[in-house]
Amino acid sequence: MAVQQIRRFVLIGDYLEPDHIHILDPVLAAQKIYVEVRRTTGVPLPFEHIKDLASNTAHLIIDPFTSEHEEVIDCIMLGAKEVCIDAGAAPLEIELAYASSKYVLTRLWLESWPPDEERSKQHHYALILDLAESCGRKAVVTSARIGIAENWWKDLPNECRKAFDWYLAPAEGTPLGVDVQPSGWLIYRSLNK
C-alpha cells in the first residue's frame, strides 16, 4: 500500500505558502491539505480564514500551534476535519481536546535530534508512550531543520513507532528515504504540478 502524501502549507494572511495560493482559489476544492497557522502566544486564531479554507477544501487539517483545547474545538467548529494540539500542552488540555473530538491529532515539534544526553532521549520516548495512553492514534512530527525528522524516525523504538499512526512533516518538504515508512508524509509539493 502506498504511503499517503498530503500537501502541506503555511497560512500567511489569506494566502497559502509555498505557491502563494489564495484561500478561496478553486484549485483547493478537491484537495486534502495540512495547514500550519504559525503564531505566537496571544495572537488570536484567524477564524474567518480557517472557515473559508474549511469550506473551500475537501479535507482540511489545521495545525493552529496551540496547547489549548478550546482553540482545537474552535477549529473543528469552523469546519476543519482534523486539528492538531501541541504534544507539550498540559496533560489536562490534551485529554480535554480528545474528549471533545475524535478528530484531534497530537503534534510534536522537533528543534533538534538527537539530544545531547541519552537520558533526554529516553525521557522523550517515555513522553510519547504516556501521550499514547491519553490520545487518539494519529500524530504529526514536524521538524525545524533538514535531517532532524529522518534521524528521529530512524532512532524511534518500535514500541513508540507502534504507539501512533505517524505523519511526518520534514523540513526537507519531501518524503525521506527511510526503510520503515510512516502512515503519511506532509509535503511541500506544488498544486501546480
Describe this structure in words.
The model has no long low-confidence stretch (mean pLDDT 93). The protein has a single domain, classed as TIM Barrel, CATH 3.20.20. The chain has an eight-stranded parallel β-barrel with strand order 1-4-5-6-7-8-9-10. It is α/β, with parallel strands linked by helices and 193 residues long. It has helices at residues 47-56, 69-77, 91-100, 118-134, 148-155, 158-161, and strands at 4-12, 15-17, 21-22, 32-36, 59-63, 82-86, 104-110, 138-143, 165-169, 184-187. Helix 2 (69-77) runs parallel beside helix 3. It has six helices and ten strands; from the N terminus they run ββββαβαβαβαβααββ.
Features:
single chain; 193 residues; alpha/beta; TIM Barrel; eight-stranded parallel beta barrel; 6 helices
User: Uncertain spans, ≥5 residues at pLDDT below 50?
Assistant: none
- Strand order, main sheet: write it out: 1-4-5-6-7-8-9-10
Largest sheet: 8 strands, parallel, barrel
Structural class: alpha/beta
The number of distinct structural domains comes to 1
- Count of extended strands: 10
CATH superfamily: Aldolase class I
Shape-level CATH architecture: Alpha-Beta Barrel
Quote the average pLDDT: 93
Q: Count the helices. How many?
A: 6
Which of globular, elongated, flat, extended, rod-shaped describes the shape?
globular
The residue fraction in helices comes out at: 25-40%
Distance between the termini: 23 Å
Name the beta content range: 25-35%
Provide the CATH topology: TIM Barrel
Task: Please write the string of helix (H) and strand (E) elements.
Answer: EEEEHEHEHEHEHHEE
CATH class: Alpha Beta
What radius of gyration results from the CA coordinates?
Answer: 16 Å
